[in-house]
């Protein structure tokens, strides 16, 4: 409670007779650093919203800069360019006859007391920056590093528009108790508007909506929740924007994984006076778990390609389930004709594997090349004479060289096909099958890989199309085929069991004693812990090196990979 | 000032007549997660300190757990094991007749109000944990992520020992104004004792000592500063522990880059009463810049090998300066006989390069193998028919496969030889010359590489030994030798200029306008910015992938690579 004293209460605009306010929820996909591209998209959506009669259009958190911008926020020239772009955008809106529209958009600001960046919402109106709010709660758990980068805001802001009092918040501000939202509860607001860059996790939509329902009750007003959509590096933003009534009814729900512009009108009357809360322009159904995760993976790949200027991909096709699912996802992301599938059989590859790889490529309409590795392997072995695991790794690394040759010579994004179970256990070859710029299924446990493959085939059948993934790839026993008769089960526990242990050890951070209490047998626990603990190095793949200057690559420099800013 | 109200003032022990107190500064090298090994080292140093008459021995921040422990702190079983180990250590000290000794050591604790970890100092005495203090200021800039992981302490602690009042602090607590140290200034202390895990940066020793002098004035008492030594993953801790008198005189200075046990006695009298402040047991001289950085790199490699159980290394020897300096560092870290140097000439390799590589290996006493890549290259090309950069990369990747074959078959740590200038500009081949588990010079700009090579040779001559690095490797024009007549200067600005731009762009985060104001010409600025911005992906080398579960690898899971904990 004592924290509340610290907030400065700010109002923009004048009180007046309450009138209905048509609000557009602009769920857009931005690119970090691409100020011009992002501003052009804001302008386009603002025009569309205005044509539909919207008086206020809200864009996601940091939509102008892209999100998350990581240490790019620390670059002064970037912050100045973002400020200039916001003003230029306001002027363009006015020029194009959209001066009366209130455009709420996230960007980066500067705390001039310490020259640190701020996570800022601005309101563009009548050719100028009319209002501003800075995010107060700066998450620094999980994928977030905001407390490291930004200075927190100290104001609680109400926008007076059409006689309606609109309290504002940015993302984490509604996830934490107290702070500006608690203060807004005492300021008689008619609406809580929150703009968000809320990264996707399976099933998170329900969590967000339950939270919004709670906040709606607390502030005594509906909540408009606008979320970013799209992939940015390894994060996916799923959209799913919505309006939550103060009685806990969902009034609008935008679809996940696509850009969207939906509408909802804040009525002239308030509370009982307003009568039943009105419905918005659409109510997208919830997706089932497998569909949601599959679409997340496809969008992540599609946006990674687009934002890094790749139009095609290449990958090794082994005939196994992992490369088959990745290829199916790639076909959904960029079309089969933009896929180069490479079969790289060795003396240990079964005919079945080769047939399944060719079958897959044909189903997807992908380019398909066979690059046998036997002669290459023999040439290496005539110099190196390797045995055991070193000889197995050699096969995988020859394949890595071939995949990268396709990538370099044709300008293709190389896809790595490793799944979370094998990466966790180090059951892959560094610089071998782990080669690639993007790994579409690296966060899927092996049992989930099978499940998604089955879901994708079933979905195709249900739509009257042919199944993209050969049934044999789904049903056969997994093998790396790096020696005669090899099976994954020679080295790893059964995947059904392994995945349960991994979920507990990695995702719940259970230690050995916890895992035994979970009911897993000691031998399995010790095997999995040993494998996982040893695999950290392999998973990173890049060489560590000593830090001897003030700013080295790696630990203390965190830049987005996809970054279109060049000033 | 208002923050001070929040501190609880805690005292341990009883006031009494002031007596002299002999303090040991135990500057030790620990391993993250290795509770048993670290505890054994604490016991050993405590025994040695006691034999020399010390009544208090101070170890670095988190010495019992190793530092930095990153997300390992979040594992409950680890925190319980650390608590058990501290109590076991206290009991062992008592058993071995060291019960009267006060042993100050850092470890991890738990904030039971929220089950979050704390960065804790404990005092072991008479078989028990006698006192405890929790770090208040949790850095989360640069290499630090402590605010993410730990809950901050709320106490200001004074230890009463021998009638002396000892205020305590952990590392960042003395770097920030206010907080517990400011509070200690009003508590009439005789000594400020701080335990630290302060990562090395070139020239940081002076900064630490200037800061300590300021704090000594503020609290009106000398400062004992004990720092960790050793490499942990990509961080290096340089030791250089010291005692700073309240008049700003350095009273003791431990050497950098080695474990050390030094002594200093806090006199019975205080201030004027004490007379001139007494000197400690040693006063290590400051190292010059090149020697300091060279030793830092050697220690980083040596500890990375030891803590990851490698006894030897392998690397490609091109005859160029980068691989020559790395090999010289490796010889200093593990001895030439544990180095496998591999010359991998192609049709583009000059005779000079081959001779220089052989010369280097001979000077260092390293194993030396020649693995020509021409036949391998032809075999690949008969299948792939690559040209341009793809053909150049193929050569580098064949070499990468060979280096990894040595690593796998002989159990050697593969060293990558890239320097900071070429890594920054992406002037290297992913999965090619960038292959390796450790990159000893990845934080050295190219001009610094030449400088350190000259320093190392001069140092050898001064010691009456032969120069480890062939002069030709230092003086010739740098070339990747991936096509006929290729020179680095074909693709990159002159290194003298390039390194200045890189220092401004990377280390000072200067943007384009800033760089022009720095006086660099627009063409160079644009070239360097384009190269650096495009190289982020290449530098990381591992495939990104979408995050779809609550806890994926990468962004939201930060574990140390070297980690000996398995419970």
TrEMBL record, chains A, B:
<comment type="pathway">
    <text>Cofactor biosynthesis; NAD(+) biosynthesis; NAD(+) from deamido-NAD(+) (L-Gln route): step 1/1.</text>
</comment>
<keyword id="KW-0520">NAD</keyword>
<feature type="active site" description="Proton acceptor; for glutaminase activity">
    <location>
        <position position="61"/>
    </location>
</feature>
<keyword id="KW-0436">Ligase</keyword>
<dbReference type="InterPro" id="IPR022310">
    <property type="entry name" value="NAD/GMP_synthase"/>
</dbReference>
<protein>
    <recommendedName>
        <fullName>Glutamine-dependent NAD(+) synthetase</fullName>
        <ecNumber>6.3.5.1</ecNumber>
    </recommendedName>
</protein>
<keyword id="KW-0547">Nucleotide-binding</keyword>
<feature type="binding site">
    <location>
        <position position="538"/>
    </location>
    <ligand>
        <name>deamido-NAD(+)</name>
    </ligand>
</feature>
<keyword id="KW-0067">ATP-binding</keyword>
<dbReference type="Pfam" id="PF02540">
    <property type="entry name" value="NAD_synthase"/>
</dbReference>
<comment type="similarity">
    <text>In the C-terminal section; belongs to the NAD synthetase family.</text>
</comment>
<dbReference type="InterPro" id="IPR000132">
    <property type="entry name" value="Nitrilase/CN_hydratase_CS"/>
</dbReference>
<dbReference type="InterPro" id="IPR036526">
    <property type="entry name" value="C-N_Hydrolase_sf"/>
</dbReference>
<feature type="active site" description="Nucleophile; for glutaminase activity">
    <location>
        <position position="171"/>
    </location>
</feature>
<feature type="region of interest" description="Disordered">
    <location>
        <begin position="469"/>
        <end position="491"/>
    </location>
</feature>
<dbReference type="Pfam" id="PF00795">
    <property type="entry name" value="CN_hydrolase"/>
</dbReference>
<dbReference type="InterPro" id="IPR014445">
    <property type="entry name" value="Gln-dep_NAD_synthase"/>
</dbReference>
<feature type="domain" description="CN hydrolase">
    <location>
        <begin position="21"/>
        <end position="268"/>
    </location>
</feature>
<feature type="binding site">
    <location>
        <position position="417"/>
    </location>
    <ligand>
        <name>ATP</name>
    </ligand>
</feature>
<feature type="binding site">
    <location>
        <position position="422"/>
    </location>
    <ligand>
        <name>deamido-NAD(+)</name>
    </ligand>
</feature>
<feature type="compositionally biased region" description="Basic and acidic residues">
    <location>
        <begin position="481"/>
        <end position="490"/>
    </location>
</feature>
<feature type="binding site">
    <location>
        <position position="393"/>
    </location>
    <ligand>
        <name>deamido-NAD(+)</name>
    </ligand>
</feature>
<feature type="binding site">
    <location>
        <position position="204"/>
    </location>
    <ligand>
        <name>L-glutamine</name>
    </ligand>
</feature>
<dbReference type="InterPro" id="IPR003694">
    <property type="entry name" value="NAD_synthase"/>
</dbReference>
<feature type="binding site">
    <location>
        <begin position="316"/>
        <end position="323"/>
    </location>
    <ligand>
        <name>ATP</name>
    </ligand>
</feature>
<comment type="function">
    <text>Catalyzes the ATP-dependent amidation of deamido-NAD to form NAD. Uses L-glutamine as a nitrogen source.</text>
</comment>
<comment type="similarity">
    <text>Belongs to the NAD synthetase family.</text>
</comment>
<feature type="active site" description="Proton acceptor">
    <location>
        <position position="61"/>
    </location>
</feature>
<feature type="binding site">
    <location>
        <position position="198"/>
    </location>
    <ligand>
        <name>L-glutamine</name>
    </ligand>
</feature>
<dbReference type="InterPro" id="IPR003010">
    <property type="entry name" value="C-N_Hydrolase"/>
</dbReference>
<dbReference type="InterPro" id="IPR014729">
    <property type="entry name" value="Rossmann-like_a/b/a_fold"/>
</dbReference>
<feature type="binding site">
    <location>
        <position position="141"/>
    </location>
    <ligand>
        <name>L-glutamine</name>
    </ligand>
</feature>
<feature type="active site" description="For glutaminase activity">
    <location>
        <position position="135"/>
    </location>
</feature>
């Amino acid at each position: 409670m004592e924290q509340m004293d610290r907030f400065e209460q700010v109002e923009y605009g004048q009180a007046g007779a309450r009138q209905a306010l048509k609000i557009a929820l602009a769920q857009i996909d931005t690119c970090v650093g691409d100020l011009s591209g992002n501003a052009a998209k804001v302008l386009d959506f603002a025009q569309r919203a205005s044509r539909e009669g919207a008086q206020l259009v809200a864009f996601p958190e940091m939509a102008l800069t892209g999100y998350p911008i990581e240490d790019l926020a620390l670059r002064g020239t970037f912050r100045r360019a973002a400020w200039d772009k916001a003003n230029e955008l306001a002027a363009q809106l006015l020029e194009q006859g959209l001066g009366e529209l209130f455009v709420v958009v996230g960007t980066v600001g500067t705390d001039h007391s310490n020259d640190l960046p701020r996570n800022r919402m601005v309101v563009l109106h009548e050719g100028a920056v009319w209002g501003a709010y800075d995010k107060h709660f700066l998450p620094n758990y999980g994928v977030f590093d905001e407390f490291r980068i930004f200075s927190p805001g100290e104001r609680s802001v109400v926008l007076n528009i059409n006689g309606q009092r609109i309290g504002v918040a940015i993302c984490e501000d509604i996830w934490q108790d107290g702070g500006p939202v608690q203060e807004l509860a005492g300021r008689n607001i008619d609406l809580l508007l929150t703009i968000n860059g809320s990264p996707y996790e399976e099933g998170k939509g329900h969590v967000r909506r339950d939270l919004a329902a709670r906040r709606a009750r607390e502030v005594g007003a509906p909540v408009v929740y606008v979320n970013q959509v799209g992939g940015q590096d390894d994060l996916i933003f799923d959209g799913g924007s919505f309006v939550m009534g103060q009685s806990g009814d969902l009034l609008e729900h935008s679809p996940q994984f696509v850009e969207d512009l939906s509408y909802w009108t804040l009525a002239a009357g308030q509370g009982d006076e307003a009568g039943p809360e009105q419905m918005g322009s659409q109510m997208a159904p919830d997706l089932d778990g497998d569909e949601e995760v599959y679409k997340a993976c496809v969008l992540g790949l599609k946006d990674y390609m687009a934002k890094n200027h790749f139009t095609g991909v290449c990958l090794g096709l082994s005939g196994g389930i992992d490369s088959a699912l990745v290829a199916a996802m790639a076909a959904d992301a960029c079309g089969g004709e933009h896929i180069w599938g490479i079969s790289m059989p060795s003396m240990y590859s079964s005919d079945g594997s080769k047939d399944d790889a060719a079958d897959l490529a044909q189903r997807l309409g992908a380019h398909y090349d066979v690059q046998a590795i036997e002669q290459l392997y023999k040439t290496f072995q005539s110099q190196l004479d390797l045995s055991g695991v070193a000889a197995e790794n050699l096969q995988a690394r020859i394949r890595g060289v071939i995949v990268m040759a396709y990538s370099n010579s044709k300008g293709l994004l190389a896809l790595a096909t490793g799944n979370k179970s094998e990466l966790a256990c180090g059951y892959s070859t560094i610089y071998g099958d782990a080669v690639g710029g993007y790994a579409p299924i690296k966060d899927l446990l092996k049992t989930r890989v099978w499940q998604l493959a089955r879901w994708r085939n079933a979905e195709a059948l249900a739509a009257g199309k042919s199944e993209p993934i050969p049934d044999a790839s789904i049903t056969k026993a997994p093998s790396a085929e790096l020696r005669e008769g090899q099976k994954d089960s020679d080295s790893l526990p059964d995947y059904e069991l392994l995945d349960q242990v991994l979920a507990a050890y990695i995702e719940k951070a259970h230690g050995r004693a916890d895992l035994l209490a979970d009911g897993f047998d000691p031998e399995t626990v010790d095997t999995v812990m040993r494998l996982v603990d040893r695999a950290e190095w392999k998973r990173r793949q890049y060489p560590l090196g000593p830090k001897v200057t003030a700013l080295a690559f790696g630990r203390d420099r965190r830049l987005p990979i996809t970054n279109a800013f060049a000033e």
